[in-house]
């Protein structure tokens, strides 16, 4: 059974590891141990994870983790953006627990938290090189609102929104 809860400072080293696990083209992969080796520091690519509490909670958003059997198996955050939406960021699900409802539970909890914060719409992006993610968000009722491609990218960003139910 998965439990969704707020981030705790002690979660940071495992959150840092979870953020670096394969996500592009990844599906369920039981070969990755459920107990993750804690990272010594935040990944350079995600400076907001250096201080999760300040970057998310301190900025009017929220950062949640998914836990099962005492192990962190998922994470994700929301931040209010300039359009008054809850921008979804850093969603990851442990490869060994994919396709088991962890992502669905995490997204439902993020949507609930957005409603509690008074935000009325979710906003996120993913990319065409992650077709599983595109299908996942569509299956949750997210509606594609646009795409963006740049000459130096080998993929296309796909933007989605979904109304928040109060």
Essential attributes:
166 residues; alpha+beta; Aminopeptidase; seven-stranded mixed beta sheet; 4 helices; 7 strands; Acyl_CoA_acyltransferase; ribosomal protein; Ribosomal protein S18 acetylase RimI-like enzyme; acyltransferase activity, transferring groups other than amino-acyl groups; ribonucleoprotein
Describe the structure.
The protein is of the alpha+beta class. It has one domain: Aminopeptidase. The chain has four helices and seven strands. It has helices spanning 12-20, 52-55, 102-116, 131-139, and strands at residues 3-6, 62-68, 71-80, 86-93, 121-127, 143-148, 157-163. Strands 1-2-3-4-5-7-6 form a seven-stranded mixed β-sheet, sandwiched between helices. Strand 4 (86-93), helix 3 (102-116) and strand 5 form a beta-alpha-beta unit. The mean pLDDT is 92.
Record field, number of beta strands: 7
Question: Per DSSP, what share of the residues sits in E-state strands of 2 or more residues?
Answer: 25-35%
In the predicted model, the low-confidence regions spanning at least 5 consecutive residues are none
CATH architecture: 3-Layer(aba) Sandwich
Label the overall shape: globular
Number of contiguous helices: 4
**Helical percent range?**
10-25%
Distance between the termini: 26 Å
Strand line-up across the major sheet = 1-2-3-4-5-7-6
Number of domains: 1
Radius of gyration: 15 Å
Query: In the CATH scheme, what's the topology name?
Result: Aminopeptidase
Query: Could you say which structural class the secondary elements and strand pairing correspond to?
Result: alpha+beta
Overall pLDDT: 92
Organism: Longispora fulva
GO molecular function, one term: acyltransferase activity, transferring groups other than amino-acyl groups
Keywords: Acyltransferase, Ribonucleoprotein, Ribosomal protein, Transferase
Pfam families: Acetyltransf_1 (PF00583)
């Amino acid at each position: 059974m998965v439990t969704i809860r707020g981030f705790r400072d002690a979660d940071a080293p495992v959150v840092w590891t979870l953020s670096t696990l394969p996500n592009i083209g990844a599906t369920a992969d039981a070969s990755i141990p459920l107990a993750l080796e804690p990272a010594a520091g935040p990944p350079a690519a995600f400076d907001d994870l250096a201080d999760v509490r300040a970057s998310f909670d301190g900025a009017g958003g929220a950062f949640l983790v998914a836990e099962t059997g005492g192990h962190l198996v998922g994470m994700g955050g929301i931040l209010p953006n300039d359009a008054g939406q809850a921008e979804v960021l850093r969603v990851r699900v442990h490869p060994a627990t994919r396709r088991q409802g962890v992502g669905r539970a995490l997204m439902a909890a993020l949507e609930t938290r957005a409603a509690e914060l008074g935000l009325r719409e979710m906003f996120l992006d993913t990319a065409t090189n992650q077709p599983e993610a595109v299908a996942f968000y569509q299956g949750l009722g997210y509606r594609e609102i646009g795409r963006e491609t740049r000459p130096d990218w080998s993929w296309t960003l796909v933007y989605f929104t979904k109304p928040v139910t109060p």
